[in-house]
Amino acid sequence: MGSLSGPIHTFPPSLDRRPGNKQVIVRSNLEAQPSSSSFSDNSAALTVRERARRAVEIAREKERERKEEVNSKIASQKAISIILRREAMKAVIEKKKSKGSKRLLPQTVLEALHERITALRWESALKVFELLREQLWYRPNPGTYVKLIVMLGKCKQPEKAHALFLAMIDEGCTANTESYTALLSAYGRSGCFDEAFSLLEQMKKMPNCKPDVFTYSILIKSCLHAFAFDKAQFLLDDMEGQGIKPNTITYNTLIDAYGKAQKFAEMERVLMEMLQDGGCEPDVWTMNSTIRAFGGSGQIEMMERCYEKFQSAGIQPNIMTFNVLLDSYGKADEYKKMSAVMEYMQKYHFSWTIVTYNIVIDAFGRAGDLRQMEYLFRLMRSERIKPSCVTLCSLVKAYGQAGSAEKIAGVLRFIENSDVTLDIVFFNCLVDAYGMMGCFSEMKGVLEMMERKGCKPDKVTYRTMIKAYRLAGMTNHAKELLHFVANDEGTQLQRGKPDFN
């Protein structure tokens, strides 16, 4: 790949993404393998000094691993201590909430509130906040209200966000641009654009709450998420009328949205406006959005040209850039170029994330290279990166395509021994894999598994099963299941499983 420094090779000799880690050999079955004679020649050429040096290195490696194990145990003990302390704190909070205590320690309540806000547990957060307001030491803080309003916006609770905004004013807090923007964002995230635009007009009339570029950027992003491109353009024109210039975040939001919608002409127009604006310089987010747009649509050459232009402009890639390149090359079956990206990441010590692993695992799984896929999955676990549902879906799909039911059973055993939270997408993927292999007993068993896990089948689940039955010529089963789904469209997900006996 011309956009990456160095020649294009097959998979790099190692994927050591952190300095000092042990080297890991990764080679693809899709590429030509080097002959084994070169390895035997190298082994024969080892001198006594080289063997002694290697023995020392092995001893050092064992000592390093021993220290890492000791440190891991210490870290685990500290983690357990923190968890126990937090659980005790939760117990105190729950107990005091029922008794209405007004003498809790500030740190205890504030930590509990922060934890719930971060986890987007809005109902529990509001209960803790009510407890906070009952404390003798409580003083209204606009910052706390803003955090809660933002959380409610993310949880699609605009009415409760508005109620909290009014409560903030009633407690004597002065509303400012930040608090109004938080409320406007809550309306925008839920698609309540009438309320959001009305609030924007109110802000224009208030001397101390004038909308700023951040206010407009947030509302523009909400409009673009709802594909309301006309409203986004109206806001851009309104910004210009108010004398507010877009910043890099505004331009990046537009570029990303137009790219995802494959509106390439509009995306390039915004990019040109950004380049002509002396106050806004493209950054790595601009590069990532642009190459994702072209790479995601299969325009690999255009993606590479954009990557080269951004690099020549002095913009350095980050891990997200490489994830985009890996994903684009993988979906385009460009495994040689995918290897070059991996080599570049190794050379400059870019640590892989769960997204990186999911991308390469999925790519090799779709290519049928199960050995490489399994190796990367083991490597992922060895680096203590917890597999997600996306990872498991890739494994199940690959094994389904290969007709390996026993391998899928191995994935299910792994799940039973882990704390991975499964979603409907995984179960639908599992149903599809079993149906593809003609394992209809196992496919029906997925419904029982879903019931145990508290996950209800959806239309995709049943449609996938119907398709599998029809392809296998089991028309009676397909008709019975189709009748089951159509019988009560509004409540079939609440009912029991269909009986094929």
UniProtKB/TrEMBL annotation:
NCBIfam families in UniProt: PPR
PPR repeats: 141-175, 176-206, 212-246, 247-282, 283-317, 353-387, 423-457
PROSITE patterns documented for this protein: PPR
Top-level division of the source organism's lineage: Eukaryota
Family designation: Belongs to the PPR family. P subfamily.
Taxonomic lineage: Eukaryota, Viridiplantae, Streptophyta, Embryophyta, Tracheophyta
Region entry Disordered, spans: 1-20
Protein known as: Pentatricopeptide repeat
Keyword Repeat in record: yes
Keyword field: Repeat
Organism encoding this protein: Dillenia turbinata
